[in-house]
Amino acid sequence: MDKTGLYKNSPYFFENKAASNYDDYVSIYGNIKNRDSKKLKLYKTAYKHRYAKKKGLSKLDCYYEKKIFDKFDYINEIRNNMQNDKKSFKKKIYHKYGYGLIIFSLLPVLGLIIPLFFNEYNPLIQNWCFSGCEKGHGITDNTHNNNYIKKDIDITTWTIIEVTNSVFLCISVFIVIFVLLYILSKFVKYERLKSGKGKMKGKEYFNYCMEVLDLKKK
After folding, report:
1. Is residue 202 part of a domain?
2. Parallel, antiparallel, or unpaired: how do β-strands 128-129 and 149-150 relate?
3. What stretches pass through the bilayer (predicted)?
4. Please, are residues 4 and 13 in contact by the beta-carbon 8 Å criterion?
5. What is the enclosing helix (H) or strand (E) of 136?
6. What is the rounded (10 degree) CA torsion for 77, 60, 190, 185?
7. How far is it between the farthest Cα atoms of the chain?
8. Which of 64, 79, 125, 159 is least crowded, fewest Cβ atoms below 10 Å from its Cβ?
9. How far apart are CA 180 and CA 183, in angstroms?
10. For residue 36, is it within any domain?
11. Structural domain includes residue 43
């Protein structure tokens, strides 16, 4: 195999010249094929070349993938510097990323406030009714029961609020699930590249995910 030709045709060639930490006498093929940690480094080195070739959502994915990989690099760097103090390491990571992700994950809870509070079983609102209400509430059909308090909102406005809240709840749940799964998939890809493994499909990928997430039965 002509390794020189493979080197020049590889996307890693375009930025590898500037990577002083690579041996000039080791081909790109050798780096990708035989050196585990180098595979991730080379993949990141070729980011600008990949980004320039992408279009649309693929370009956006490439951009955010780099952002996420940079965060993983930062976490690994901190872990290496704090090997003897795992407690402080976890505390620092939780403060920097963990709490933010938890708060973000709770975003859909905002969409549950209205339906949880304004329901027929809440004793605080059982005697509330809409402005313009003329219902008898069990006494008469034509005369409003004065034991029920009219609020400054009509039924049309309330319907709009309910629909808007439902839309927000559905969208926020979708966004949270999508973002968390996206980050998780990038974490698996990061670990796969770091360990020098190639692309996986089906059961092999599933088993590797379980292994990376430490969910595989011992």
Report:
1. no
2. parallel
3. 97-118, 166-184
4. no
5. none
6. 120
7. 94
8. 159
9. 5
10. yes
11. yes
**Per-residue pLDDT tens listing for the chain (218 residues):** 554 555 455 554 544 444 444 444 344 444 444 445 788 888 888 898 899 999 999 999 999 999 999 999 988 888 888 877 778 888 888 888 888 899 999 999 999 988 888 877 777 777 777 776 666 555 555 555 566 666 777 778 888 988 999 999 999 999 999 999 999 999 989 988 888 887 888 888 888 888 887 755 54
How many Å apart are CA 128 and CA 149, to the nearest integer? Answer: 5
- The count of domains in the chain is 1
For the record, the structure tokens of 119 come out as 């329901």
Question: What is the b/e burial string over 125-137, where b = at least 16 CB atoms within 10 angstroms of the residue's CB?
Answer: eeeebbeebeeee
Residue 49 included in any domain: yes
DSSP, collapsed to helix, strand or coil, labels residue 128 as strand
**Which amino acid type is present at position 172?**
S
Question: pTM for the complete prediction?
Answer: 0.69
Amino acid at 107: L
Neighbours of 87 (CB within 10 A): 8
